[in-house]
């Protein structure tokens, strides 16, 4: 893999591919441990230069007609789709996602998001307010006042993206930010940043003006700290762990910067006795198959009513045992590796912890026998108690825990007994009960008899799972400030 102008990837600053001050670090294929490419190490000075370039570009870009912003985003989508196969191969190699997942859920979702926010650039930003009669008083005679609420771009947005989906996550931030007239500095995850630089190349090829999009990355925490704390930055959009999110929030608080944060999750699947057990097993099993559980919305906690508990456990154990684990490029593979050796070791430490806590290991628990790569077998624990760490803490891997319950109130209490609140799920044949229970769950989203997503529905979390909402038109609101305009009628 080569960068635009040499053997190592370069940074993208002010419309130019710039040699990194700190050299390069290898990006490793999680399946083979081979080097995919060399990613750049930006210096603090280069990060600040990127934020200043974004600041300089903001004025002209924010005044660019919405129709032109829409045209450029559409053009970027076309370029991404035209390069679907090489982009898919890169995403597969650096993330460990299966080829099908890399193509459909990463590259093509990124293109779809550019298309969606090309339309978003044309959505109305003005909301007329009803006229108001102000009676005579110290401020003057009686009069009718008119008003508009108008959404304006925030300014320079630092987008800190996650490793589990570099294409879709980055596009989900960059596209709505640009549609609203903001400029961006993207700091990609160090494990798989090369896809984000390809995205920047697609935007540049589409004609996005210099400085509107900048990408600066590296393994040092100083890179992220500079990208978040730079004086030129008005907003931070972050996807990642709650621990890092708290540190970013402190910096944003000191600088009064806007923030949009999609953080950790410990999603619960609340399964009632009258649920369809096979459908519930298939859905919960996506924790094993989709990015090998490296996704914040995964239903990793199963809160199972006792009448269905044993059937669920048997179904999940059978599913875990028959899922093909293998190289992501092979057509039959369903479960690929996790992102790194360090993360594999972390997930394995939770498996050991679960055993030590007294949970019963029903499936998995042993490392798959590959010579190289970062593998974790689909793992299932039962006989879990609400206080166990494997039940309470985000593992971010293909590990599912099952906790039994008796009554509806008990089930709801178990779901809500978490510091997280991103996405929960209710499985029941009683539609009225499912909607009633959903209203009691303290999470940003609830799936009823599905783990599917609606891509216009607001996305974000309660409590330690985040601040703010994006997706659909909600993302346009997230990347804008509201200005009031008032005049005498």
Would you mind describing this structure in some detail?
The N terminus is likely disordered. The protein starts with 10 loop residues before the first strand and ends with a strand. The protein folds into two domains: 277 residues, 3-Layer(aba) Sandwich (Aldehyde Dehydrogenase, Chain A, domain 1), CATH 3.40.605; 188 residues, Aldehyde Dehydrogenase, Chain A, domain 2. It is globular and about 70 Å long. Helix 4 runs parallel beside helix 5. The strands form five sheets. A seven-stranded mixed sheet has the order 14-15-16-13-12-17-18, sandwiched between helices. Strands 9-8-7-10-11-19 form a six-stranded mixed sheet, with helices on both faces. Helices cover 40% and strands 21% of the residues. Belongs to the aldehyde dehydrogenase family. This is Aldehyde dehydrogenase.
List the SSEs and their pairings.
Layout: E1 11-13, E2 16-18, E3 24-28, E4 35-40, H1 44-62, H2 66-82, H3 84-95, H4 99-120, E5 126-134, E6 143-153, E7 156-160, H5 166-179, E8 183-187, H6 194-206, E9 213-215, H7 221-229, E10 235-239, H8 242-255, E11 258-262, E12 268-271, H9 277-284, H10 286-289, E13 301-305, H11 306-322, H12 341-357, E14 360-363, E15 379-382, H13 389-392, E16 399-405, H14 408-416, E17 423-427, H15 431-440, E18 445-448, E19 466-467, H16 472-478, E20 480-488
Parallel strand pairs: 7-8, 7-10, 8-9, 10-11, 12-13, 12-17, 13-16, 15-16, 17-18
Antiparallel strand pairs: 1-2, 3-4, 5-6, 6-20, 11-19, 14-15
């Amino acid at each position: 893999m080569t960068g635009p102008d040499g053997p190592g990837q370069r940074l993208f600053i002010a419309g130019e591919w710039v040699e990194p001050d700190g050299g390069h670090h290898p990006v490793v294929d999680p399946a083979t441990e081979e080097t995919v490419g060399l990613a750049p190490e930006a210096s603090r000075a280069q990060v600040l230069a990127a934020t200043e370039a974004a600041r300089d570009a903001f004025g002209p870009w924010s005044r660019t007609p919405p129709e032109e912003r829409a045209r450029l985003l559409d053009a970027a989508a076309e370029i991404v789709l035209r390069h679907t196969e090489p982009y898919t191969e890169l995403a597969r190699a650096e993330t460990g996602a299966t080829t099908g997942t890399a193509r459909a859920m990463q590259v093509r979702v990124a293109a779809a998001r550019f298309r969606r926010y090309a339309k978003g650039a044309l959505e109305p930003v003005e909301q007329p307010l009803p006229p108001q009669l102000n009676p005579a008083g110290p401020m003057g005679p009686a009069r009718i006042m008119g008003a508009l609420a108008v959404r304006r771009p925030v300014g320079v947005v630092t987008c800190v993206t996650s490793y589990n989906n570099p294409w879709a996550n980055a596009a989900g931030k960059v596209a709505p930010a640009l549609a609203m007239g903001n400029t961006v500095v993207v700091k990609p995850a160090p494990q798989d940043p090369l896809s984000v630089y390809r995205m920047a190349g697609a935007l540049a090829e589409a004609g996005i003006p210099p400085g509107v999009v900048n990408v600066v990355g590296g393994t040092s925490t100083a890179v992220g700290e500079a990208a978040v704390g730079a004086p030129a930055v008005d907003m931070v959009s972050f996807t990642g762990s709650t621990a890092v999110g708290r540190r970013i929030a402190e910096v944003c608080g000191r600088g009064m910067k806007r923030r949009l944060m999609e953080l950790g999750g410990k999603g619960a699947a609340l399964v009632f006795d009258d649920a369809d057990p096979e459908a519930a097993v298939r859905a919960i099993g996506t924790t094993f198959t989709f990015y090998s559980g490296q996704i914040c919305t995964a239903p990793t906690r199963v809160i199972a009513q006792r009448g269905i508990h044993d059937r669920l456990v048997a179904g999940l154990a059978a599913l875990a045992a028959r899922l093909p684990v293998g190289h992501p490029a092979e057509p039959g593979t369903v479960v690929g590796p996790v992102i790194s050796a360090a993360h594999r070791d972390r997930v394995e430490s939770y498996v050991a912890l679960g055993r030590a806590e007294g949970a019963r290991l029903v499936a998995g628990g042993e490392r798959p026998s590959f010579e190289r790569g970062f593998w974790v077998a689909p793992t299932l624990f039962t006989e879990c108690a609400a206080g166990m760490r494997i039940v309470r803490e985000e593992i971010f891997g293909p590990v599912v825990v099952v906790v039994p319950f008796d009554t509806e109130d008990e089930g709801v209490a178990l779901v809500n007994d978490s510091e997280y609140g991103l996405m929960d799920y209710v499985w029941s044949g009683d539609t009225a009960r499912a909607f009633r229970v959903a209203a009691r769950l303290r999470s940003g989203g609830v799936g009823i008899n599905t783990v599917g997503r609606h891509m216009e529905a607001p996305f974000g979390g309660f409590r330690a799972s985040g601040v703010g909402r994006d997706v659909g038109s909600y993302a346009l609101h997230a990347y804008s400030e509201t200005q009031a305009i008032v005049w005498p009628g």
